[in-house]
């Protein structure tokens, strides 16, 4: 891992969590939207994350140590059988996350009886998006916490770099 590896990993997480927060905000903003250009009520959206690279600890450790996994390795200790190289070798940065897509929730809309609503059907029911404000707030709090944790990791890395530069003075 290079000197800025933590920043690379945390930057990918910051971007992903920003997208997640935007999608949650869009879901909350459209919780009562009964009319869309596609027709029908707004559909809730989900963000799909994917780990960048091989994120398993064993592969990360082996990558950092310059080793090769033996075929048929079934446990953590068996992977050490072919270690070579030094611990300080620069290698590929493990970790990171990418947003692979934003998908629409195909759940059925909620039907509420409101015969005065302009989008009410002949039976007086209106189709509303199946969006639970509590679920959205939980997702938003998760995105906020994750964003904060990654921002703290960037700050810690920045302090480490600053300390390293102070040693060189």
TrEMBL record:
It comes from the Bacteria. GO terms for biological process: bacterial-type flagellum-dependent swarming motility. Transmembrane segments: none annotated. Residues 124-164 form the Flagellar basal-body/hook protein C-terminal domain. It is found in: Bacterial flagellum basal body. Keywords: Bacterial flagellum, Cell projection, Cilium, Flagellum. GO terms for cellular component: bacterial-type flagellum basal body, rod. Its main location: other. The keyword 4Fe-4S does not apply. The keyword tRNA-binding does not apply. Residues 7-34 form the Flagellar basal body rod protein N-terminal domain. InterPro entries: Flag_bb_rod_N, Flagellar_basal_body_rod_CS, Flg_bb/hook_C_dom, FlgC. The basal body constitutes a major portion of the flagellar organelle and consists of four rings (L,P,S, and M) mounted on a central rod. The rod consists of about 26 subunits of FlgG in the distal portion, and FlgB, FlgC and FlgF are thought to build up the proximal portion of the rod with about 6 subunits each. NCBIfam families: FlgC. Belongs to the flagella basal body rod proteins family. This is Flagellar basal-body rod protein FlgC. The gene is flgC.
């Amino acid at each position: 891992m290079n000197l800025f590896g933590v920043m690379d990993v945390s930057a990918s997480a910051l971007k992903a969590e920003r997208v997640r927060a935007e999608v949650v905000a869009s879901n909350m903003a459209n919780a009562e939207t009964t009319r869309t250009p596609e027709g029908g009520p707004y559909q809730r959206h989900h963000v799909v994350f994917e780990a960048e690279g091989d994120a398993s600890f064993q592969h990360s450790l082996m990558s950092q140590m310059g080793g090769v996994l033996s075929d048929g390795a079934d446990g953590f200790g068996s992977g050490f059988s072919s270690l070579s190289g030094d611990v300080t070798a620069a290698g590929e940065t493990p970790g990171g996350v990418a947003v692979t897509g934003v998908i629409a929730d195909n759940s059925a809309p909620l039907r509420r009886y409101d015969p005065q609503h302009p989008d009410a059907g002949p039976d007086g029911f209106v189709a509303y998006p199946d969006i639970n404000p509590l679920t959205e707030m939980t997702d938003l709090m998760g995105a906020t916490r994750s964003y904060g944790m990654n921002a703290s990791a960037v700050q810690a890395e920045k302090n480490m770099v600053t300390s390293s530069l102070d040693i060189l003075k």
